[in-house]
Amino acid sequence: MEARYQAYRQRLEREFDKLGPRLQAEAPDLHPKLKAATPEPVPYSYRILPKMIADLAPSVQPPRSTSISYSWRRTDALIDGALKRLEALEAKVDAVPGTPPEARRAAWEQIVNDYVGLAQSHRLINDHVQYNRLWQGEIERHRAGYDYMTTLHDAVLERQGILDAIRAADPNLDPRVHAREQELLRQIRQRTDVLTVPAFLRVEEPAPRRWTIRVPVYTDIDDTAFLRTFRSAVENAWHVQDGGDEFQVVLDIRHVPSSRLYPDGRVPAHGEHIDRFPPDGAVLTTGANTTHVLGRAINLGPHDIAPNTLAHEFGHILGFVDGYFRGYRDRGPEGYEVLEVLTDPSDIMSAPGIGRVQRRHFQRILDTRRGPARVDPGAARSTRKEQPDPYRVKYAGARPVPMSNRAQNRVNQALRDLAPAADSRKAERHEWACYAAQQDVEKAVKALHLHVGQEAWGHVVATLLVELPPGDSAATGPSREGSRPGQLPYPGALSQ
Ligand SMILES: [Zn+2]
Asked: How far apart are alpha carbons 36 and 200 in whole angstroms?
């Protein structure tokens, strides 16, 4: 497959090399257009900013969850199509000498347009190749986790089928499907409604029914025009008026000159500079190969980005997780078919391109700030006896360190949640046991992060451990550059 892709790519490049000199001789004004279309790798480094592009137009249809699939078979079909177009282009170039002089100009124009189209397809094919290479490998390495994500992927599609039937007012609809729809929604939300609000976020109520969330953002970016664009992208998206209520995010952007981060003037190693920013805020910086969030930092890559996508990344800073699932089907010798589904295309965390911030997002942040829910007076009179919690009893006090309530709550939760893992193991559902145990370890490590005064998110325990500060100090840990599942762009459609 890769060999076939390389062969196609070389043939496209050869055609370009042949076309360039002929065009310069016969229609030199068209040459710059040809040259601009040449696929070149995009360089990335510290201090390279992305170009801001326009948001996608909102869709007219009510958004539906559909599954998008990527596979070597599909990539193969894309190459087939491109190859046919390239052959047609080569034939057109060969036919130019036989064309009457007055028609040549039009012929060259057509050829250049065809080439520009082929260069665009090439970028898409290249994305597919890279994408398959990455995710096929990830799925192979973490089968159990992806099996779980596949059940969630299927849950989203099943629920969408029910919603379609309800919308179409299907007379044969079994009334029980409403309960099924709610159950599927509960399963999906259990995964997507994880929220870890950072400690540096301030909630203010400047007036009745108005809530402002203030977020300090440290940056070493000097380009004030870019910072203005960033601010308006985030503040416009994270602003909801609903009934008489108004919610908004306000950024407090604080510039940290790179001379202070790097007194000796050297260029930082990848991700190294993030720890040097003051710890009480988010970080906006450059140097990534593709824009992503790691810990409290938005690391910008060189590729064009739309305001709504930046606002999606900022959602991660506020503590939200991605609202899409990546599953797979095993296609035997053809490899895996990688499947992706948006849980809710109207939600910015689900669809960075067309989703929007909703009241629900703000509500969830405010709920975490209101502390533990008040006890329902009815529940207090309940005669139900509190069940002893074996895990809590067993581990409580094992390590007498003072912890913040939030950290302690997380540890307790992680220990309690070990029970399903143990049950699954007993039932010989080993993949579920592994998955549940991994989740618990993740929770426990995140609690440790909280304990040392920092927020962490992400699902790769090894990365979470690397991000812990050395020893028991409360200093922020080192950040690491790289892409993680859920952090890589969709080819073409949605960049993240
Ligand atoms: Zn994301």
From this structure: 44
Distance 129 CA to ligand 1 centre (A): 21
> How far does the centroid of ligand 1 lie from the alpha carbon of residue 207, in Å?
32
Residue in the structure block whose two tokens are 């307790």: 412
What does the alpha-carbon distance between residue 490 and residue 299 come to, in Å, rounded to a whole number? Answer: 18
Q: 299: which strand partners? A: 285, 292
The model's pTM = 0.66
Beta strands 297-300 and 239-242: pairing type? unpaired
Q: Tell me the CA–centroid distance for residue 97 and ligand 1, in Å.
A: 52
Is residue 296 within 8 A of residue 198, CB to CB? The reply is yes
Task: Output the CA 89–ligand 1 centroid distance in Å.
Answer: 39
Of 283, 276, 315, 287, residue with least CA distance to 298: 283
Domain ranges of the chain: 2-42+72-141, 202-319+354-364, 398-496
What residue ranges in 197-275 does DSSP mark as E strands?
202-207, 210-219, 239-242, 245-255
Ramachandran assignment for 374, one of left (phi > 0), alpha (psi -120 to 50 degrees), beta (any other):
beta
What does the pLDDT look like over 390-444, one tens digit per residue? Answer: 322 222 223 323 344 566 666 666 666 676 677 667 766 666 666 667 767 777 7
Which residues 6+ apart lie within 8 Å of 167 measured at CB? Answer: 62
CA 5 to ligand 1 centroid distance, Å = 29
Distance CA 93, CA 296 (A): 53
Alpha carbon of 141 to ligand 1 centroid (Å): 22
Q: Are 455 and 449 spatial neighbours (Cβ–Cβ below 8 Å)? A: yes
Q: How far is the CA of 44 from the centre of ligand 1 (A)?
A: 20
Cα 119 from Cα 125, distance rounded (Å): 10
Distance 175 CA to ligand 1 centre (A): 36
Q: Which CATH superfamily is domain 398-496 in?
A: Nucleotidyltransferases  domain 2 (1.20.120.330)
